[in-house]
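Bench notes, bay 3.
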Amino acid sequence: MGMKLNRNSIRWTVTLVIILLVAFALRVIQLDRRPLWWDEGNSVYFAHQGLSALVNETRTTNDTDPPVYRLALGGWGILAGSSPFAVRFFSALLGVVAVALTWVVGCWLTSRRTALLAAFLVALSPMQVYYSREAKGYVWATVWGLLSVYAWGQGLGYFSARSPSRSESLCWWAVYVLSTAAAVGTHYYLGLLVLWQGFWVTGGAGFSLIRGSPARRQALVRLGQWILATVLVALLLAPWAWAVFGTTVRGVRGLSRGNALLPWTYLSPVSYTHLRAHET
């Protein structure tokens, strides 16, 4: 029986490694075939700035992107350089990490079979492959978002019956706060992830009170702990938000001028441009 379980574990591991290797190959083949385009060059330009210069440049240009990915790319550039291949390789590695984290989250939420299928689909997903080949922060945000969900749901037990020990809890709280700050500090839309977690925690506490559950005290404690964690996340991001809020709002208003396009009016030229880009 033990031998059979061991063979099954080896089979799952080998299959996952193959999927990760395929994901890596898809993300690095001919990675520098094209020169950096505008948004990638923008990322590299900001990545070369120190923190104070980054704040000044963001305010001067009314840029709307938060700083975490750019700071990380700057650190990567010190090690690997700033050639097109080097800056894109950072995203390629993160894309493979996203596949691995999909497996981890999938094993937690479902089964190894389903997790393997999910990892396989992420490895081959055209969108995932595309953004893993660009020097932009989307895959970086994906990695931290997945880690935030896992730390919140599994590590801290908000989405499972598991109750971590005190020492485990402190470690997972640190992981949750830092990963959530990194995610939101890369793309503001990741704040919706925190909002979803808040609905879940608040709803659970509310139902426990309404039903008079014996676990209502624990639910309220968890709600308080989560609120404290989100306050810490907000405090980590507050200096940046305070420094660039006015110029970021102006940038968003500038980008939002004009009438909104209907979905099919938008998708038609985008699809055509994407096809032409792959033909050249």
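Next record in the batch:
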Amino acid sequence: GGNIKGIIKKLDYIKSLGANIIQLSPVFKSSSCHKYDAGNYEIIDEMFGTNDEFKKLCKAAENKGIKVILEAVFSYTSSDSKYFNKLGNYDEIGAYNSPNSKYHSWYKFIKYPYQYESWWGISERPNVNVMEESYINYIIKSKNSILKKWIDLGVSGWRLNVIDELPDEFIELIRKRVQEIDEETILLGDIWDDASNKVSYSKRRRYLQGNEVQAVTNYPLRESLINFTKGYITSHRLKQKIMSLYENYPRESFYGNINIAWTNDTERILTVLDENIELLRLLVVIQFTLPGVPLIYYGDEIGLKGGREPDNRRSYPWGKENKDLIEFYREIANIRNSENGLKKGDVSIYETDSDVFAFERNYE
């Protein structure tokens, strides 16, 4: 099933799709079903397995030419965590239990202990003061830091969730540290806007200026592809949207951006396209042939449907797959993987009739 051993068993299937990276949603111990609010950053949640099993996954994936990227939320934890321990489920003295707790300075209490800053006012997700020195040491700097621990276990990259909530200085520290540990380690950011000119909390962000993330999730492209495929915008407007990103982003980031048509935060793409498989094929062809790194959200390659979360996180229907659609994904991924033009090439978009989108990729 959906655990570490299950992924190991399905590595050959994942490889057969042409994938060479597996990006996992958070796997740290947490009392929630989605695990985005960590209870303990040091261990895999027992629903998924053990740290040893995770290490085996990274090794087995590496042997098949597949890297593993972890997603992490560092701007808040769970209130049911060893750091906060509001429910008393941990042996540690959490910030909620005593002002003398070693974790007390991590959190922002308004009226101790009952009132504290939390993510979007959700009391189960207390915000962390990420620039607090002991927190920086724990996550980033110490020789036994969380970053170091998981890279040593085999992780090849990190995807930072809700990077708007993290100060530039904190992201810069992460980038510097992970590349000290292994210069090949990649750092990605999850952002819904154009990351090149993003303003959050009244500050112009520095995401793509060379010291933070190397690339981001390409939500603006997703929106434009859906709108064009469904006939809401013309191909000329689609060209404008793509060229705006092309001109705004550093070339390296533009070519490293994660080209998504769906994620665990959105409705399933087949549902968005009113279950029209032919429209899905058209959209996927563009997704896989424009500059950027295409991402398949598990199950979309077999026609899984689903509305807003949690309906978009249905189980993978083993034995009931749309085999034709799988084969289509394999073909388009194989074309992309075997053509340098599609991985590195320049892009030229032609002027066409309003319902036709034509472009050329050219490398050397």
